[in-house]
Design goal:
The protein is of the alpha/beta class and 427 residues long. 41% of the residues lie in helices and 11% in strands. The structure holds flavin mononucleotide.
């Protein structure tokens, strides 16, 4: 019988020994999940494991959102509007959920979106997540502010990755990042445009979240309850935005000022003219991330971009912003069938992904899910998250009577908000 974890301790199987600062081994095979992880049935369960494994301030940095967090909540409730209308009498012995996206065939209609400083969850998290995505043949997009250098991720996770770029005040820095990404073999570029300034994340303020971490007294006690997390961080060094270390040094910022440097680089003066310049600098597909308006989507396409990510940044930027499912249909109608429409925010179930596809999205990106997975258990946690989501998408399609993801139509959904409100009933 497995020994139960002590309360408050990491509720996961002991992690395999890893060489400290060295890069994770280049490997495409997904190792089998530790026994206790295999019992995790869903992303919400993985989130709870991650919550136990990480200090509160780190979990809140990942899990939290701006101000009232209403956009983050709506990112979950948006799916309730739509009910499935399944079809029967269809042969669904085999289901094809593969998609063509930005010149490659992927084996599922979802991928991993960019998340900065993932190393706070687990050392070298970006490499581990990229390897998991590559092994599962789904897209992976590296953040500008990754805690592993973009060259190192590319070297250890194979070709074909996507790179996310912020257009910083120091345009030379953004151009340099773009040049490095191309040289390292990144295939597609995602330009994030919804960060003219930082979001007001109150959980972070409350926790005194800074880098390097300087926890409050309560935070320090909380961190001490996670000795495995502490040991991993001590062995690997404090995570920092590695792609920007030289630029910060040039700007005479010390290590402590790196994150300040980065947030000060967010530029409220960026216009479509700047965006167009960066689209032109890339010689592969470009996607503009963080669009909610149909007018903006049309302008994005005029810059030469191939598509957009309909996104409210996981509710972390403009609190009160609508969620992607609220606008996805009119977005598809506005731009027509050709351009790529991705969307993100709150996708925790395979059924959520199926709804987005039926409403016109080509694919879905996910931010927090693999952060929960990696924070709970390292690479096996990543693989388990992807496995769960893939099998949920597949099962949903079988139950819907849909054998090819491309056969999903709006008719497979019903707008429940147009039905009379449910009456209380006896049971
Ligand atoms: C911890 C964290 C860091 C993020 N960092 C970035 C980033 O560096 N660049 C970016 O474009 N989006 C970033 N995002 C937003 C995600 O790409 C994505 O839009 C969002 O997480 C989707 O919502 P979900 O987490 O509910 O899936 C971040 C999100 C999280 C949770």
């Amino acid at each position: 019988m497995q020994k139960r974890p002590e309360p408050g301790r990491d509720a996961i199987a002991p992690e395999p020994k890893r060489a400290s600062a060295s890069a994770p081994r280049k490997s495409s095979a997904a190792p089998p999940p530790p026994a206790r992880l295999a019992k995790v049935q869903s992303i919400p369960e993985m989130r709870r494991l991650a919550e136990k494994a990480m200090p509160r301030a780190i979990f809140d940095f990942i899990d939290g959102a701006a101000e009232t967090e209403v956009s983050r909540q709506r990112n979950r409730t948006q799916f309730d509007q739509w009910g499935f209308v399944h079809r029967v009498g269809k042969d669904v012995r085999s289901v094809d959920m593969s998609i063509e996206l930005l010149g490659r065939t992927y084996s599922a209609p979802f991928g991993i979106g960019p998340t900065g400083l993932a190393g706070l969850a687990w050392p070298k998290a970006e490499t581990l997540i990229a390897q998991g995505a590559e092994a599962a043949n789904i897209p992976f997009c590296l953040s500008t502010v990754s805690s592993v250098r973009l060259e190192e991720v590319a070297e250890n996770a194979g070709a074909g990755l996507w790179f996310q770029l912020y257009i910083f005040k120091d345009r030379g820095l953004s151009r340099e990042l773009l040049r490095r990404a191309r040289a390292a073999g990144y295939k597609s570029l995602v330009i994030t445009v919804d960060c003219p300034t930082g979001g007001n994340r109150e959980r972070d303020h409350k926790n005194g979240f800074t880098l390097p971490l300087r926890p409050t007294i309560r935070g320090a006690f909380d961190t001490l309850k996670r000795p495995r997390w502490i040991m991993r961080q001590l062995a690997n060094g404090a995570p920092r935005p590695e792609n920007m270390v030289e630029a910060a040094a040039r700007a005479a910022q010390n290590a402590q000022g790196l994150v300040v440097f980065m947030s000060e680089q967010l530029d409220p003066s960026v216009t479509w003219t700047d965006i167009e310049e960066f689209v032109e600098l890339w010689d592969g597909p470009v996607i503009i991330k963080g669009v909610l308006s149909t007018e903006d989507a049309k302008t994005a396409l005029k810059t030469g971009a191939q598509g957009v990510v309909v996104s409210n940044h996981g509710g972390r930027q403009l609190d009160g912003a609508v969620s992607c499912l609220h606008v996805i249909e009119r977005m598809r109608e506005a731009v027509g069938g050709g351009p790529t429409i991705l969307c993100d925010g709150g996708f925790r179930r395979g059924a959520d992904v199926v709804k987005a596809r039926a409403l016109g999205a080509d694919a879905v990106l996910m931010g927090r899910n693999t952060l929960y997975g990696v924070g709970a258990a390292g690479r096996p946690g990543v693989d388990h998250v992807i496995r769960l989501l893939k099998s949920e998408v597949e099962r949903t399609l079988v139950l819907m009577g849909v054998s090819r993801i491309s056969d999903l139509k709006h008719d497979h959904l019903m707008d429940m908000s147009k039905l009379p409100p449910a009456q209380p009933h006896a049971d």
